[in-house]
Design brief:
The protein is α/β, with parallel strands linked by helices. It has two domains: 217 residues, 3-Deoxy-D-manno-octulosonic-acid transferase, N-terminal domain (Rossmann fold, 3-Layer(aba) Sandwich); 186 residues, Glycogen Phosphorylase B (Rossmann fold). The strands form two sheets. Strands 3-2-1-4-5-6-7 form a seven-stranded parallel sheet. The chain is globular and about 65 Å long.
Length: 419
Protein backbone atom coordinates (compact mmCIF):
# COMPACT_ATOMS: atom_id res chain seq x y z
CA UNK A 1 0.00 0.00 0.00
CA UNK A 2 1.33 3.48 -0.78
CA UNK A 3 1.04 6.47 1.55
CA UNK A 4 -1.55 8.30 -0.57
CA UNK A 5 -3.93 5.33 -0.49
CA UNK A 6 -3.32 4.78 3.23
CA UNK A 7 -4.08 8.42 4.07
CA UNK A 8 -7.13 8.43 1.79
CA UNK A 9 -8.50 5.39 3.62
CA UNK A 10 -8.08 7.20 6.93
CA UNK A 11 -10.04 10.19 5.62
CA UNK A 12 -12.77 7.97 4.19
CA UNK A 13 -13.01 6.12 7.51
CA UNK A 14 -13.57 9.24 9.61
CA UNK A 15 -17.39 8.86 9.69
CA UNK A 16 -16.92 5.28 10.92
CA UNK A 17 -14.40 6.48 13.47
CA UNK A 18 -16.95 8.99 14.77
CA UNK A 19 -19.61 6.26 15.01
CA UNK A 20 -17.18 3.99 16.86
CA UNK A 21 -16.40 6.73 19.37
CA UNK A 22 -20.12 7.34 19.92
CA UNK A 23 -20.76 3.61 20.31
CA UNK A 24 -18.01 3.22 22.89
CA UNK A 25 -19.19 6.35 24.69
CA UNK A 26 -22.46 4.61 25.56
CA UNK A 27 -20.55 2.75 28.26
CA UNK A 28 -17.52 5.02 28.62
CA UNK A 29 -18.53 8.67 28.14
CA UNK A 30 -14.83 9.56 28.37
CA UNK A 31 -14.46 8.53 24.72
CA UNK A 32 -16.15 11.83 23.81
CA UNK A 33 -13.86 13.91 26.00
CA UNK A 34 -10.84 15.79 24.57
CA UNK A 35 -12.00 15.15 20.99
CA UNK A 36 -9.80 17.93 19.59
CA UNK A 37 -6.74 16.02 20.76
CA UNK A 38 -7.74 13.15 18.47
CA UNK A 39 -6.99 15.56 15.62
CA UNK A 40 -3.70 16.99 16.83
CA UNK A 41 -4.66 19.59 19.46
CA UNK A 42 -1.96 18.60 21.94
CA UNK A 43 -1.20 20.83 24.93
CA UNK A 44 1.20 23.47 23.65
CA UNK A 45 4.79 23.25 24.81
CA UNK A 46 5.99 25.82 27.30
CA UNK A 47 9.44 27.23 27.83
CA UNK A 48 10.87 23.99 29.23
CA UNK A 49 12.03 21.25 26.83
CA UNK A 50 9.67 18.31 26.63
CA UNK A 51 10.09 14.55 26.33
CA UNK A 52 7.16 12.69 24.80
CA UNK A 53 6.22 9.09 25.62
CA UNK A 54 3.30 7.24 24.01
CA UNK A 55 1.56 4.42 25.91
CA UNK A 56 -1.57 3.30 24.10
CA UNK A 57 -3.63 1.82 26.98
CA UNK A 58 -3.50 0.46 30.53
CA UNK A 59 -0.78 -2.18 30.16
CA UNK A 60 1.58 0.08 28.26
CA UNK A 61 0.98 2.95 30.68
CA UNK A 62 1.79 0.81 33.69
CA UNK A 63 4.87 -0.49 31.90
CA UNK A 64 5.92 3.10 31.20
CA UNK A 65 5.88 4.03 34.89
CA UNK A 66 9.55 3.26 35.67
CA UNK A 67 10.65 4.87 32.40
CA UNK A 68 8.75 8.09 33.14
CA UNK A 69 10.06 8.17 36.71
CA UNK A 70 13.63 7.80 35.48
CA UNK A 71 13.14 10.46 32.78
CA UNK A 72 11.89 12.92 35.39
CA UNK A 73 14.83 12.14 37.67
CA UNK A 74 17.55 12.18 34.99
CA UNK A 75 16.26 15.26 33.12
CA UNK A 76 15.08 17.67 35.84
CA UNK A 77 14.88 20.59 33.40
CA UNK A 78 12.47 18.71 31.10
CA UNK A 79 8.74 18.04 31.22
CA UNK A 80 7.06 14.84 30.00
CA UNK A 81 4.06 14.57 27.68
CA UNK A 82 2.32 11.20 28.06
CA UNK A 83 -0.08 10.25 25.27
CA UNK A 84 -2.65 7.45 25.02
CA UNK A 85 -5.34 6.10 22.71
CA UNK A 86 -7.89 4.89 25.29
CA UNK A 87 -9.66 6.57 28.24
CA UNK A 88 -8.57 3.74 30.53
CA UNK A 89 -4.96 4.33 29.55
CA UNK A 90 -5.38 8.02 30.26
CA UNK A 91 -7.03 7.31 33.62
CA UNK A 92 -4.14 5.00 34.53
CA UNK A 93 -1.68 7.75 33.65
CA UNK A 94 -3.59 10.19 35.84
CA UNK A 95 -3.52 7.69 38.69
CA UNK A 96 0.23 7.15 38.36
CA UNK A 97 1.35 10.72 37.65
CA UNK A 98 -1.58 12.98 38.53
CA UNK A 99 0.33 14.65 41.33
CA UNK A 100 3.41 15.33 39.18
CA UNK A 101 3.29 18.88 37.73
CA UNK A 102 5.95 18.04 35.12
CA UNK A 103 3.75 15.37 33.46
CA UNK A 104 0.98 16.35 31.03
CA UNK A 105 -1.38 13.98 29.24
CA UNK A 106 -3.15 13.96 25.88
CA UNK A 107 -4.52 11.61 23.26
CA UNK A 108 -2.34 10.76 20.31
CA UNK A 109 -4.17 11.88 17.14
CA UNK A 110 -5.49 9.54 14.49
CA UNK A 111 -2.91 8.78 11.82
CA UNK A 112 -3.95 11.57 9.47
CA UNK A 113 -0.93 13.39 8.01
CA UNK A 114 -2.16 16.87 8.91
CA UNK A 115 -3.21 15.80 12.43
CA UNK A 116 0.18 14.27 13.18
CA UNK A 117 1.99 17.33 11.84
CA UNK A 118 -0.24 19.57 13.99
CA UNK A 119 0.41 17.41 17.05
CA UNK A 120 4.18 17.68 16.70
CA UNK A 121 4.06 21.40 15.94
CA UNK A 122 2.12 22.06 19.14
CA UNK A 123 3.87 19.54 21.40
CA UNK A 124 7.41 20.33 20.15
CA UNK A 125 9.09 17.39 21.92
CA UNK A 126 12.84 16.94 21.93
CA UNK A 127 12.41 13.16 21.76
CA UNK A 128 9.61 10.66 21.21
CA UNK A 129 9.42 7.23 22.87
CA UNK A 130 6.76 4.77 21.69
CA UNK A 131 6.07 1.92 24.11
CA UNK A 132 5.68 -1.62 22.78
CA UNK A 133 4.44 -1.57 19.15
CA UNK A 134 2.17 1.37 18.37
CA UNK A 135 3.70 2.22 14.98
CA UNK A 136 1.81 4.66 12.72
CA UNK A 137 3.24 5.44 9.26
CA UNK A 138 2.08 9.07 9.03
CA UNK A 139 3.25 9.81 12.56
CA UNK A 140 6.70 8.46 11.76
CA UNK A 141 6.86 10.45 8.53
CA UNK A 142 5.87 13.64 10.38
CA UNK A 143 8.55 12.95 13.01
CA UNK A 144 11.15 12.39 10.30
CA UNK A 145 10.22 15.66 8.59
CA UNK A 146 10.41 17.50 11.91
CA UNK A 147 13.86 16.04 12.65
CA UNK A 148 12.46 14.41 15.80
CA UNK A 149 14.41 11.37 17.07
CA UNK A 150 12.08 8.47 17.89
CA UNK A 151 12.64 5.34 19.97
CA UNK A 152 10.54 2.18 19.97
CA UNK A 153 10.94 0.90 23.52
CA UNK A 154 9.90 -2.34 25.20
CA UNK A 155 9.01 -3.47 21.70
CA UNK A 156 7.19 -6.73 21.18
CA UNK A 157 5.77 -8.07 17.94
CA UNK A 158 3.87 -11.33 17.64
CA UNK A 159 4.06 -13.38 14.46
CA UNK A 160 0.46 -12.43 13.68
CA UNK A 161 1.10 -8.70 14.13
CA UNK A 162 4.27 -8.95 12.04
CA UNK A 163 2.28 -10.46 9.18
CA UNK A 164 -0.18 -7.57 9.43
CA UNK A 165 2.55 -4.96 9.19
CA UNK A 166 4.24 -6.80 6.33
CA UNK A 167 1.02 -6.63 4.32
CA UNK A 168 1.52 -2.84 4.29
CA UNK A 169 4.79 -3.36 2.43
CA UNK A 170 7.08 -0.35 2.05
CA UNK A 171 4.74 1.83 4.11
CA UNK A 172 5.39 -0.21 7.27
CA UNK A 173 9.04 -0.81 6.36
CA UNK A 174 9.68 2.93 6.16
CA UNK A 175 7.87 3.52 9.47
CA UNK A 176 9.96 0.95 11.37
CA UNK A 177 13.16 2.14 9.69
CA UNK A 178 12.45 5.70 10.90
CA UNK A 179 13.15 4.87 14.54
CA UNK A 180 16.57 5.98 15.77
CA UNK A 181 16.64 2.84 17.91
CA UNK A 182 14.35 -0.14 18.46
CA UNK A 183 14.64 -1.83 21.87
CA UNK A 184 13.10 -5.30 21.69
CA UNK A 185 11.95 -7.42 24.60
CA UNK A 186 13.28 -10.74 23.22
CA UNK A 187 15.37 -12.23 20.43
CA UNK A 188 12.21 -13.37 18.63
CA UNK A 189 10.75 -9.87 18.84
CA UNK A 190 14.00 -8.41 17.47
CA UNK A 191 13.99 -10.83 14.55
CA UNK A 192 10.39 -10.01 13.59
CA UNK A 193 10.96 -6.27 14.03
CA UNK A 194 13.99 -6.43 11.74
CA UNK A 195 11.91 -8.26 9.12
CA UNK A 196 9.44 -5.36 9.26
CA UNK A 197 12.18 -2.79 8.63
CA UNK A 198 13.65 -1.92 12.03
CA UNK A 199 17.37 -1.13 11.80
CA UNK A 200 19.52 -3.35 14.07
CA UNK A 201 17.06 -3.74 16.96
CA UNK A 202 18.67 -4.28 20.37
CA UNK A 203 17.34 -6.84 22.88
CA UNK A 204 16.85 -4.97 26.16
CA UNK A 205 14.32 -7.09 28.08
CA UNK A 206 10.90 -6.12 29.40
CA UNK A 207 10.48 -2.95 31.47
CA UNK A 208 7.42 -4.51 33.12
CA UNK A 209 9.86 -6.39 35.36
CA UNK A 210 10.98 -2.98 36.68
CA UNK A 211 7.50 -1.85 37.77
CA UNK A 212 7.47 -1.51 41.54
CA UNK A 213 4.32 -2.71 43.29
CA UNK A 214 3.00 0.27 45.29
CA UNK A 215 3.38 -0.40 49.03
CA UNK A 216 0.02 1.19 49.73
CA UNK A 217 -1.66 -1.23 47.30
CA UNK A 218 0.09 -4.21 48.90
CA UNK A 219 -1.08 -2.98 52.31
CA UNK A 220 -4.60 -2.68 50.90
CA UNK A 221 -4.34 -6.29 49.74
CA UNK A 222 -3.44 -7.35 53.27
CA UNK A 223 -6.58 -5.60 54.52
CA UNK A 224 -8.65 -7.32 51.83
CA UNK A 225 -7.22 -10.64 52.97
CA UNK A 226 -7.93 -9.92 56.64
CA UNK A 227 -11.58 -9.30 55.71
CA UNK A 228 -12.00 -12.97 54.69
CA UNK A 229 -10.16 -14.86 57.45
CA UNK A 230 -9.64 -18.54 56.85
CA UNK A 231 -11.12 -18.55 53.35
CA UNK A 232 -9.09 -19.60 50.30
CA UNK A 233 -9.01 -16.84 47.67
CA UNK A 234 -8.80 -17.49 43.93
CA UNK A 235 -8.20 -14.48 41.69
CA UNK A 236 -9.29 -14.32 38.05
CA UNK A 237 -7.28 -11.31 36.87
CA UNK A 238 -7.85 -9.15 33.79
CA UNK A 239 -10.47 -11.43 32.28
CA UNK A 240 -11.80 -10.77 28.80
CA UNK A 241 -15.15 -11.27 27.10
CA UNK A 242 -16.00 -14.95 26.68
CA UNK A 243 -13.83 -16.05 29.61
CA UNK A 244 -15.90 -15.28 32.68
CA UNK A 245 -18.74 -17.69 31.89
CA UNK A 246 -16.54 -20.85 31.73
CA UNK A 247 -14.47 -19.67 34.70
CA UNK A 248 -17.58 -19.13 36.84
CA UNK A 249 -19.00 -22.51 35.84
CA UNK A 250 -15.69 -24.22 36.67
CA UNK A 251 -15.45 -22.35 39.98
CA UNK A 252 -18.91 -23.51 41.02
CA UNK A 253 -18.01 -27.08 40.10
CA UNK A 254 -14.42 -27.50 41.30
CA UNK A 255 -13.50 -24.86 43.91
CA UNK A 256 -13.66 -25.58 47.65
CA UNK A 257 -17.07 -24.73 49.10
CA UNK A 258 -15.65 -21.92 51.23
CA UNK A 259 -13.47 -20.42 48.48
CA UNK A 260 -13.91 -16.80 47.38
CA UNK A 261 -13.45 -15.94 43.71
CA UNK A 262 -12.15 -12.42 43.14
CA UNK A 263 -13.13 -11.62 39.56
CA UNK A 264 -11.48 -8.58 37.94
CA UNK A 265 -12.48 -7.89 34.31
CA UNK A 266 -9.91 -6.21 32.11
CA UNK A 267 -12.26 -3.51 30.80
CA UNK A 268 -14.37 -1.38 33.17
CA UNK A 269 -17.21 -0.98 30.67
CA UNK A 270 -17.92 -4.71 31.18
CA UNK A 271 -18.30 -4.62 34.97
CA UNK A 272 -22.11 -4.68 34.90
CA UNK A 273 -22.22 -7.41 32.26
CA UNK A 274 -19.90 -9.59 34.32
CA UNK A 275 -22.00 -8.99 37.43
CA UNK A 276 -25.01 -10.25 35.47
CA UNK A 277 -23.06 -13.39 34.48
CA UNK A 278 -22.29 -14.10 38.14
CA UNK A 279 -25.96 -13.83 39.07
CA UNK A 280 -26.94 -16.02 36.11
CA UNK A 281 -24.59 -18.70 37.44
CA UNK A 282 -26.46 -18.52 40.76
CA UNK A 283 -23.45 -17.38 42.78
CA UNK A 284 -23.74 -14.80 45.54
CA UNK A 285 -22.08 -11.54 44.45
CA UNK A 286 -20.56 -8.54 46.18
CA UNK A 287 -18.83 -5.63 44.47
CA UNK A 288 -15.68 -3.82 45.49
CA UNK A 289 -17.29 -0.52 44.51
CA UNK A 290 -20.03 -1.03 47.10
CA UNK A 291 -17.44 -0.94 49.89
CA UNK A 292 -19.42 -3.43 51.96
CA UNK A 293 -18.12 -6.27 54.13
CA UNK A 294 -17.54 -9.54 52.26
CA UNK A 295 -19.93 -11.86 54.07
CA UNK A 296 -19.39 -15.59 54.45
CA UNK A 297 -22.21 -16.17 51.98
CA UNK A 298 -20.45 -14.24 49.20
CA UNK A 299 -18.85 -16.58 46.62
CA UNK A 300 -17.74 -13.96 44.07
CA UNK A 301 -16.25 -10.53 44.79
CA UNK A 302 -16.25 -8.38 41.67
CA UNK A 303 -13.14 -6.20 41.50
CA UNK A 304 -14.86 -3.28 39.77
CA UNK A 305 -12.15 -0.76 40.60
CA UNK A 306 -9.20 0.77 38.79
CA UNK A 307 -5.56 0.63 39.84
CA UNK A 308 -5.92 -2.01 42.56
CA UNK A 309 -4.62 -5.11 40.80
CA UNK A 310 -1.54 -5.31 43.04
CA UNK A 311 -3.88 -5.43 46.04
CA UNK A 312 -5.89 -8.26 44.49
CA UNK A 313 -2.69 -10.21 43.80
CA UNK A 314 -1.52 -9.78 47.39
CA UNK A 315 -4.94 -10.96 48.62
CA UNK A 316 -5.01 -14.14 46.52
CA UNK A 317 -3.75 -17.66 47.18
CA UNK A 318 -3.54 -18.31 43.44
CA UNK A 319 -4.12 -16.16 40.34
CA UNK A 320 -5.60 -17.14 36.97
CA UNK A 321 -4.41 -14.74 34.28
CA UNK A 322 -7.07 -13.51 31.87
CA UNK A 323 -6.80 -13.18 28.12
CA UNK A 324 -5.26 -16.65 28.00
CA UNK A 325 -8.46 -18.74 28.19
CA UNK A 326 -9.65 -17.49 24.79
CA UNK A 327 -7.33 -16.92 21.77
CA UNK A 328 -6.55 -13.35 22.87
CA UNK A 329 -2.84 -13.63 23.60
CA UNK A 330 -2.90 -13.39 27.38
CA UNK A 331 -2.28 -10.57 29.83
CA UNK A 332 0.81 -9.65 31.83
CA UNK A 333 1.69 -12.22 34.51
CA UNK A 334 4.79 -10.39 35.79
CA UNK A 335 2.93 -8.36 38.41
CA UNK A 336 1.42 -11.52 39.90
CA UNK A 337 4.85 -13.13 40.08
CA UNK A 338 6.34 -10.03 41.70
CA UNK A 339 3.60 -10.15 44.34
CA UNK A 340 4.59 -13.73 45.17
CA UNK A 341 1.32 -15.20 43.95
CA UNK A 342 1.28 -18.61 42.18
CA UNK A 343 0.10 -18.21 38.59
CA UNK A 344 -2.13 -20.37 36.41
CA UNK A 345 -2.11 -19.52 32.74
CA UNK A 346 -4.26 -20.73 29.84
CA UNK A 347 -3.21 -22.03 26.44
CA UNK A 348 -3.20 -18.66 24.62
CA UNK A 349 -0.20 -16.51 25.60
CA UNK A 350 1.31 -15.29 22.33
CA UNK A 351 1.38 -11.66 23.54
CA UNK A 352 3.56 -12.64 26.51
CA UNK A 353 5.16 -15.80 25.16
CA UNK A 354 8.69 -15.23 26.46
CA UNK A 355 7.71 -14.10 29.97
CA UNK A 356 5.19 -16.94 30.25
CA UNK A 357 7.63 -19.66 29.23
CA UNK A 358 10.31 -18.28 31.55
CA UNK A 359 7.84 -18.12 34.46
CA UNK A 360 6.82 -21.73 33.84
CA UNK A 361 10.46 -22.81 33.64
CA UNK A 362 11.19 -20.97 36.90
CA UNK A 363 8.42 -22.87 38.68
CA UNK A 364 6.34 -19.72 39.18
CA UNK A 365 3.49 -20.61 36.81
CA UNK A 366 1.60 -23.62 35.47
CA UNK A 367 -0.20 -23.86 32.15
CA UNK A 368 -3.70 -25.31 32.11
CA UNK A 369 -5.68 -26.49 29.10
CA UNK A 370 -8.95 -24.76 29.98
CA UNK A 371 -10.97 -23.17 32.78
CA UNK A 372 -11.96 -26.51 34.27
CA UNK A 373 -8.35 -27.67 34.47
CA UNK A 374 -7.35 -24.32 35.98
CA UNK A 375 -9.92 -24.48 38.77
CA UNK A 376 -9.01 -28.08 39.55
CA UNK A 377 -5.35 -27.03 39.74
CA UNK A 378 -6.26 -24.04 41.93
CA UNK A 379 -8.09 -26.36 44.33
CA UNK A 380 -5.03 -28.66 44.43
CA UNK A 381 -2.69 -25.75 45.21
CA UNK A 382 -4.99 -24.45 47.93
CA UNK A 383 -4.74 -27.86 49.59
CA UNK A 384 -0.94 -28.05 49.09
CA UNK A 385 0.53 -25.18 51.10
CA UNK A 386 4.16 -26.16 50.53
CA UNK A 387 3.86 -26.23 46.73
CA UNK A 388 1.90 -22.99 46.74
CA UNK A 389 4.52 -21.21 48.83
CA UNK A 390 7.31 -22.60 46.65
CA UNK A 391 5.62 -21.24 43.50
CA UNK A 392 5.12 -17.84 45.12
CA UNK A 393 8.77 -17.59 46.14
CA UNK A 394 9.86 -18.72 42.67
CA UNK A 395 7.70 -15.99 41.13
CA UNK A 396 9.22 -13.26 43.26
CA UNK A 397 12.74 -14.48 42.41
CA UNK A 398 11.87 -14.71 38.70
CA UNK A 399 10.57 -11.13 38.66
CA UNK A 400 13.63 -9.79 40.49
CA UNK A 401 16.10 -11.63 38.25
CA UNK A 402 14.78 -10.08 35.04
CA UNK A 403 14.96 -6.40 35.97
CA UNK A 404 17.15 -3.86 34.18
CA UNK A 405 15.33 -2.97 30.94
CA UNK A 406 14.51 0.53 32.19
CA UNK A 407 18.19 1.37 32.67
CA UNK A 408 18.94 0.16 29.14
CA UNK A 409 16.05 2.26 27.81
CA UNK A 410 17.43 5.37 29.52
CA UNK A 411 20.82 4.71 27.93
CA UNK A 412 19.11 4.78 24.51
CA UNK A 413 17.35 8.04 25.44
CA UNK A 414 20.72 9.58 26.32
CA UNK A 415 22.17 8.47 22.99
CA UNK A 416 19.23 9.95 21.07
CA UNK A 417 19.48 13.26 22.95
CA UNK A 418 23.26 13.33 22.76
CA UNK A 419 23.58 13.68 26.53
Amino acid sequence: MNRLAYSALWHLALPLVALRLAWRARRQPEYLHHLAERFGAAPRAGARPRLWLHAVSVGETRAAQPVVRQLLARYPTHDVLLTHMTPTGRATGAELFGGEPRVQQAYLPYDLPWAQARFLARARPALGVVMETEVWPNLMRAARRAGLPMLLANARLSARSARGYQRLGALAHDAFASFAEVLAQTDDDARRLAACGARAPRVCGNVKFDVELPPERLALGERFRAAVPGRPVILAASTREGEEGPLLEAFARHAPADALLVLVPRHPQRFDDVAALVRKQGLTLARRSAGSVIGAEVRVWLGDSMGEMAAYYRMADVALIGGSWQPLGGQNLIEACAAGTPVLIGPHTFNFADATEKAIAAGAALRCADAGAALREAARLIADTATRQHMGAAGAAFAAANRGATARTLEAVARALGT
